């Protein structure tokens, strides 16, 4: 049972890969970049799902996959040209297939009416309901009668067409896929009474024979009234895995004399009895189709194991830093071997870390593919017309980032369709293509990943946003806001411009949730809008969640780390550069610009810094692209630090994003530059509770 | 090792320790190890009983001053102070105490409920005490770890 379960698990894992291949193939077909090979790959994906599903008796899945496959086969054979309408059906069917796989995995049933709807549209592609063959396509292996060859065929039953002459020679892959020629041949008895003659011509000499390969072929005379398609579809699962010819059986021509049943009964496909001493006439050759299906060798590993490895490497990095520190403290002569060795150790540890982090990095393609689906659903729900153009799908990002981006991106895509893209009529009226375009792109940019979502819709209606915010009591009626400030109102909790609660978005889940999710990943989101031309959301995320480049600083006697990314420069201001503003605020003049000053010790509530120490200002650029100066005591070093979350054992701390372990074993807090910069305007943002800390609460003092 | 179910088992073991001059005890099932005090890294904007975070073999764990938590004033610095490392759920944390005294083996039934106390201040201080065990030299207060790490000032987030 457990073996069966694990095979089943493997099947569903493979399904994920196959569905991904299906989605990328269809995407290529959609932009008409598909050659024959792509169509083949799409067909094979559906076909393999069908095959696996049949083996597990998932009949609903088999039925659907089969009809899907029939349409793809028509395209493959050139009988059907995939126009827009057909592509649409195919894409939606692929989505439905994914749902069905999921339902089958969880043992849930699917809405039969829904499936029937999809089947109907698939059939419509072919211009009508499918031929009769449908009843027979399925595996009937389980129901093979045991009396394999009951009687020799009655000689020419009157009125019947003659039947079919089938030549069947399995390839090694047929066996590798778990098919059993014996059952295949025996199952033909359902059509009529087959007369089977083995073809031993390819059988090598006994001493050179590899018993794990099939050497036999069979010639089967099958008198039956079924059409050729029925026979072909019976061998469907062996397609590409064997040489198969089906020709009309001419009863007048005496074919090979029917062998007596004993000889006709095919021996075990692994032929132990090597009676035909011919040299192997044809080496087992993988079919061309098969070669393409072979993926790059990969290894499926439990994510937990990878994380354990990553943790261990993180500890190694810390340990390396400690040893390096100790060696430095010894003040050994420069030519001492240990110094060279610790240097090597450092480089090796870094290499190891990079290699390990690469394991977790995955391309964003599956995420983007999911978004195409979300778009299709959103388009269907709103009656608008839009297409999604993805670029940079190969960009690799940490797996956790990909997983946790799915919800925010889903929300943003729905928003773009629901609020961004106008109705086709409105678009046409303003001289735009009636079909809206949403561009989703990913790229690496200076140590971070930038994901951009751009629509060519109407852009933000700033007057309406403002009115909404005033009506909702979020801003004062006479507040003087810049355009970007108005845009940023969208991120406030409880903000929704949707006039009515639509099915799609505007369910009270606003962009604030998107922003929180992005912030939880250590990223930030910015928006830009051009009225009439569309709007753009940019999410910028750290490459990895486990290490980052940081500057080691000291604040009020504490050693801390600030991420290097937002720091533009460090300045040691002269007292004359600092200017009082109001009662408590100060401004720093840098090359003629005045920047707000934030005393880090003060905002963290730590003892005020020693006034005798000359202040050091870190100029940081914040989310709103404005700059400010963070005052610290000193900058010591710039290095990669291993990020240790505070959430697991404590909870979020305002102004602090995480912690790290220094070379001396002490913990240093990693400052959240964004929050510090925002501190001067607002109280710390509400913390997002982590799932582990149920019911705990750490209110700021 | 911890009994299969400390709430219904006939006997229970408690680690007793001193904080703020009073005796407290914690179900041994929660206790992972006892460590020497070492310097912590303070956290900003936290309640006064949260001293900061410490490095426990690569994990960052918060350290609570038990005496401050129960309103008995901050624990004076002393090299003999120890940290009781405890786990609750998936969380690991440390409790700063003055000294660990013994392991107490008692039957569940001998744990008395905390008597109703008059003063509001005391009552605030004793949220986090589940019960009292009479011991040879007086009594020891059984602490509720979940309540200790929850600050009472705001509803849970």
UniProtKB/TrEMBL annotation, chain A:
Record's catalysed reaction(s): ATP + protein L-histidine = ADP + protein N-phospho-L-histidine
Known EC number: 2.7.13.3
Gene Ontology terms for molecular function: ATP binding; phosphorelay sensor kinase activity
GO cellular component, one term: cytoplasm
Domain HPt: 1-104
Pfam families: CheW, H-kinase_dim, HATPase_c, Hpt
Enzyme class: transferase
GO biological process terms, semicolon-separated: chemotaxis
Gene3D superfamilies: Histidine kinase CheA-like, homodimeric domain (1.10.287.560), Histidine kinase-like ATPase, C-terminal domain (3.30.565.10), HPT domain (1.20.120.160), SH3 Domains (2.30.30.40)
Ranges where the CheW-like domain occurs: 547-682
Presence of the UniProt keyword ATP-binding in the record: yes
Biased composition (Pro residues): 255-270
Stored InterPro entries: Bact_Chemotaxis_CheA, CheA-like_dim, CheA-like_homodim_sf, CheW-like_dom_sf, CheW-lke_dom, HATPase_C_sf, HATPase_dom, His_kinase_dom
Modified residues (Phosphohistidine): 47
Region (Disordered) residue spans: 248-300, 682-701
SUPFAM superfamilies linked to this entry: ATPase domain of HSP90 chaperone/DNA topoisomerase II/histidine kinase, CheW-like, Histidine-containing phosphotransfer domain, HPT domain, Homodimeric domain of signal transducing histidine kinase
Domain of life where this protein originates: Bacteria
Biased composition (Low complexity): 271-281
Keyword Phosphoprotein: yes
Alphabetized PANTHER family for the sequence: CHEMOTAXIS PROTEIN CHEA, SENSOR HISTIDINE KINASE CHEA
Chain's role: Involved in the transmission of sensory signals from the chemoreceptors to the flagellar motors. CheA is autophosphorylated; it can transfer its phosphate group to either CheB or CheY.
Protein name listed in UniProt: Chemotaxis protein CheA
Taxonomic path: Bacteria, Pseudomonadati, Pseudomonadota, Alphaproteobacteria, Rhodobacterales
Automatic annotation (TrEMBL), chain B:
SMART domains for the chain: CheW (SM00260)
PANTHER family associated with the record: CHEMOTAXIS PROTEIN CHEW (PTHR22617:SF23), CHEMOTAXIS SENSOR HISTIDINE KINASE-RELATED (PTHR22617)
InterPro entries referenced in this protein's UniProt entry, alphabetically: CheW (IPR039315), CheW-like_dom_sf (IPR036061), CheW-lke_dom (IPR002545)
Superkingdom as given in the UniProt entry: Bacteria
Record PROSITE patterns: CHEW
Organism: Pseudogemmobacter humi
GO biological process per UniProt: chemotaxis; signal transduction
Name this protein carries in UniProt: Chemotaxis protein CheW
Domain CheW-like as annotated: residue spans: 11-154
GO cellular component term of the entry, any: cytosol
Gene: cheW
